[in-house]
Amino acid sequence: MEYSDDYIKNVLKENGYKYTHQRAKIYEVFLNNRDSHLSTEDVFEHLKKDNPEIGIATVYRTLMLFEELGILYKISFDDGLIRYEIKSDDAVHRHHHLICTNCGKVIEFKLDLLDELEKKIEKAENFKIIDHNLKFYGYCEKCSNEKERINEK
């Protein structure tokens, strides 16, 4: 996947949607924050200073559309917020996440050892897997070290 205005214009056009200033600006937020997991409110905060004409309802609808068209991934870290991130151009599957249950830090990792498991599941269940999403919960290095220091006392 290429990251450009032409890419987003083509995806929208191919699916019967117009390329608008608002959609372009929302896509730009993700281009400028590729390593982030942005909520609707996060995107709105990025936009509101330079684009006060774009309301939060427009952001909400556009994020849902971009997810439906495969431009963004929708992610939940089980904290009540829905977040989005731009689809990677080199990923067969979504990347995975490590979530610190103490501080909430999210660490992305790309190591994917599930291909063989997917093949077995597809064969056993006669089911075509197109993607998966994996999250591990635990303690980040900082929180783990703090817990060890507390336990040493």
CATH class category name of the largest domain: Mainly Alpha
CATH H-level superfamily of the largest domain:
Winged helix-like DNA-binding domain superfamily/Winged helix DNA-binding domain
Q: What is the global morphology?
A: flat
What profile does the largest beta sheet have? 3 strands, antiparallel
Write the layout of secondary structure elements.
Elements: H1 5-14, H2 21-31, E1 38-39, H3 40-48, H4 56-68, E2 72-76, E3 82-86, E4 96-100, E5 106-109, H5 115-125, E6 135-138, H6 141-152
Parallel strand pairs: 4-6
Antiparallel strand pairs: 1-3, 2-3, 4-5
Helix pairs in contact: 2-3, 3-4
Keywords: DNA-binding, Iron, Metal-binding, Repressor, Transcription, Transcription regulation, Zinc
Binding site for Fe cation: 132
InterPro entries: FUR (IPR002481), Fur_C (IPR043135), WH-like_DNA-bd_sf (IPR036388), WH_DNA-bd_sf (IPR036390)
Q: What does this molecule look like?
A:
By secondary structure, the protein is α+β, with helices and mostly antiparallel strands. It folds into two domains: about 1-90, Winged helix-like DNA-binding domain superfamily/Winged helix DNA-binding domain (Arc Repressor Mutant, subunit A); about 90-153, 2-Layer Sandwich (Dna Ligase, domain 1), CATH 3.30.1490. Helix content is about 45%, strand content about 15%. It has six helices and six strands. It has helices spanning about 5-15, 20-30, 40-50, 55-70, 115-125, 140-150; strands at about 40, 70-75, 80-85, 95-100, 105-110, 135-140. The strands form two sheets. It has a three-stranded antiparallel sheet. It is flat, with a radius of gyration of 19 Å. The model has no long low-confidence stretch (mean pLDDT about 85).
